[in-house]
Design goal:
InterPro entries: SusD-like_2 (IPR041662), TPR-like_helical_dom_sf (IPR011990). The chain is mainly α. It contains 21 helices and 4 strands. The N terminus is likely disordered.
Length: 498
């Protein structure tokens, strides 16, 4: 009997132990994993480009939407967005970047830690140039800093520039130590780390040009940083051609379709080009016009037997006005007076690639730095490079454009021409860069009137409304420090613009 009892106890112990082991193995919810591959997180936190004809491209007056009601033109402004997000939220880029850093440590894949610095610089610099001062040094430390303070905008830019420089240096060392290494989860460069390094440095130039009003600030050292990049190409490689563009090529597949495609028939009827953009192209007899736009229906009807001649005539194109109501533009559209996007180029699932950061912008940024005397590079060379690259992006014949129609010129007029070409190059790509550029330079002059919902564009986004209830003291202190008031107004001038 004792023997039977011992056997039974041993059997129960074995069953109990086995059951515990199985429970430990199964208790992790497969639908809520505690560990995620850093490559999956990297894909999720990499900023996506904005495709052509999205709402974002109304603000810099590239296009508008014709509607049959009497609504005024609607510019999509309101509260800004913080990229911190709730700790448990799936759409929290900055928190997911921190998660990626942790997972990269577990997986021994340091390249994600290096690229995380670039990504943090991207998100923080985006937030600060939209809104002004933002939380950074105390951000996302809920237990320690449940109500984080706002860091001055200058400090945010200094930290972002530091991250970008570190990311470039560390990525260079990583590439040298592990030849042929790549990064998984890359939506832009198919894992090519050398192209990522170029993108980091091209983005740094974008940030430095954005700080042009602060070129005399010793702490920022804008000119010195720009010079250092240009004078040390081995240490700071840059984009060399359009093939280096940080861009997404569209196709008929979920996640890869552009905004304007055959599944969105309403856009084909509603999208109109705006004269701010069209008239600048016409001013320089710019061949990009004939690539991106169709002639007005009236122009085509006036010469139905010679469409080629109609398309070659710059007088055949007309843009809607940003200074009238949408219903007024709709009437002109119905009367055949306005140009729409080129049907052959855009009305398909490929359209044109959506650029987040491009070679043409980089070259025009360098041209501006040279024009301002920051560097000794030949401004004309980089102006020509930038314009030529933009023409090539559209497959437009450049002809005598750089010698006769819009050649490089020096002085203040030359700087304005660089800014005009930047505006044309950024047409419906690179997110909000054209808007930020116009805010900084005033080029081109936007058109408004009292019949619109706004008579001018605001110069900043308001802070997220939740800040006034969830982080009241820090939020209001930031407003007082920047603007001398606790009113959060979109016309207030942030440090960057002073």
């Amino acid at each position: 009997m004792k023997t039977m009892h011992k056997v039974l106890c041993l059997w129960l112990l074995a069953v109990t132990t086995s059951s515990c082991l199985k429970y430990d193995e199964l208790r992790e919810n497969p639908n809520n994993p505690s560990s995620v591959a850093p490559s999956l997180l990297f894909s999720g936190v990499t900023p996506a480009p904005v495709s052509a004809f999205s709402d974002a491209y109304q603000n810099p007056q590239y296009h508008t939407f014709a509607t049959a009601d009497s609504s005024p033109l609607n510019y999509k402004y309101g509260g800004g967005t913080f990229y911190y997000g709730a700790k448990e939220a799936a759409n929290s880029p900055l928190r997911n970047i921190e998660k990626m850093i942790g997972e990269a440590g577990k997986a021994n894949t340091p390249v994600y830690v290096i690229l995380a610095k670039f990504l943090k610089a991207y998100y923080y610099s985006t937030m600060t140039r939209q809104m002004g001062d933002i939380p950074l040094s105390e951000a996302m430390q809920g237990e320690k800093f449940p109500k984080p303070k706002y860091d001055p905008q200058k400090s945010v830019f200094i930290q972002c520039l530091k991250w970008l420089d570190e990311s470039n240096s560390e990525l260079s060392a990583y590439i040298a130590a592990t030849p042929g290494a790549s990064v998984d989860g890359d939506i832009y460069f198919n894992g090519d780390l050398k192209k990522w390094q170029k993108a980091i440095n091209a983005y740094t130039l974008r940030m430095l040009i954005l700080l042009s009003k602060k070129e005399g600030d010793a702490d920022l050292n804008v000119k010195g940083r720009f010079q250092n990049i240009i004078q040390n190409p081995a240490k700071y490689p840059l984009f060399g051609s359009l093939s280096d563009n940080m861009q997404l090529v569209h196709r008929d597949e979920d996640g890869f379709r552009g905004t304007y495609n055959p599944n969105s028939g309403i856009l084909r009827e509603g999208v109109l080009y705006v004269d701010t953009y069209i008239d600048l192209l016409k001013k320089y007899l710019d061949p990009r016009l004939q690539i991106v736009a169709d002639p007005t229906p009236n122009a085509l009807a006036a010469n139905p037997t010679n469409e080629t001649a109609v398309r070659a005539d710059f007088a055949s194109y007309a843009g809607a006005s940003a200074a009238v109501t949408a219903i007024a533009n709709n009437l002109r559209k119905n009367n055949g007076e306005l140009s729409k996007p080129n049907e052959k180029r855009f009305w398909n699932f490929v359209g044109q690639p959506s650029i987040l950061l491009g070679y043409s912008e980089q070259e025009l940024n360098i041209a501006e730095a040279a024009q301002r005397g920051w560097i000794t590079e030949n401004a004309k060379t980089h102006y020509d490079n930038g314009v030529t690259a933009s023409m090539a992006f559209y497959n437009a014949p450049i002809g005598d454009y750089l010698t006769t129609k819009a050649p490089y010129i020096g002085g203040a007029d030359g700087l304005k021409r660089i800014h005009e070409q930047m505006y044309l190059s950024l047409a419906e790509n690179s997110g909000a860069e054209a808007w930020f550029q116009q805010r900084r330079t005033g080029v081109p002059e936007f058109k408004f009137s009292g019949v619109n919902s706004v008579t001018k564009l605001p110069v900043r986004w308001a802070y997220p409304s939740a800040e006034n209830t969830e982080n009241t003291e820090s939020y209001r202190a930031a407003l007082r420090a920047q603007f001398g008031t606790e009113i959060d107004d979109r016309d207030q001038i942030m440090w960057l613009l002073k």
